[in-house]
Amino acid sequence: MNILLVFAHPEPRSLNGALRDVAVAELAGQGHAVRVSDLYAQGWKSVVDRADFPALAPGARLMPAPASGQAFAGGGLTEDVKAEQAKLLWADVLILQFPLWWYTMPAILKGWVDRVFAYGFAYGVGEHSERHWGDRFGEGTLAGKRAMLIVTAGGWGEHYAPRGVNGPIDDLLFPINHGILYYPGYEVLPAFVAYRADRLDDGGFAHVAERLRARMRTLATTPPIPYRRQNGGDYLIPSLHLRPGLDAPGTTGFALHVNGTAHEPG
């Protein structure tokens, strides 16, 4: 398989850097083709602004979504963005790797998403009608590909359990897994999470590294999170409300949009 790993940590000697090297070595050893986009090393521009749309008239008001769509349709996106989009089309699997900072991804990785997931490429595609509300949430440009997260967290695993003070890790990662990866069509695998990132000794790292190698060996066979497809019949269109009776009694929040039993993060 072709695998793109987008790496977002400023220190190559960090735990994240070591885990990236473990993942890449394991994937290459399995015969996969691997590319790494190291955002800090590339000096990735993380904000959307007028410089992203060279064809925009100087006096025109910047509306990012329409400007993005026009630039994509006309081949006018900046070269750094087009290069990352080409990598996404090449890759069978996308891995986003980052430390959990303030309950989400670092700003540089969010900026990668903001700029690379352009209108017409990752969203704003497909028919919008009374029967079908765009190609998204299980459909879209990147459908048929797989994606997953490799995440490090400073807290204990217990802190991210269903009754943990930080909230369930699946809920914290839902906006990324569902709203960024599943939205344009990826099948999203359960995240690989390493806890107590700043407190691992050699033995702890060896254990985490072996777990990661095991996950890399099963990229093609791990069942994806069973998110509900937007246009698969579970949602009313155009309101996009879940049809009555499809959820288990007492289910609320993000869990409504997962069809089946809870999964275990790796």
UniProtKB/TrEMBL annotation:
It comes from Chelatococcus reniformis. GO terms for molecular function: NAD(P)H dehydrogenase (quinone) activity. Belongs to the NAD(P)H dehydrogenase (quinone) family. This is NAD(P)H dehydrogenase. Gene3D superfamilies: 3.40.50.360. The keyword Cell membrane does not apply. Keywords: Oxidoreductase. Coiled coil: none annotated. GO terms for cellular component: cytosol. Residues 1-214 form the Flavodoxin-like fold domain.
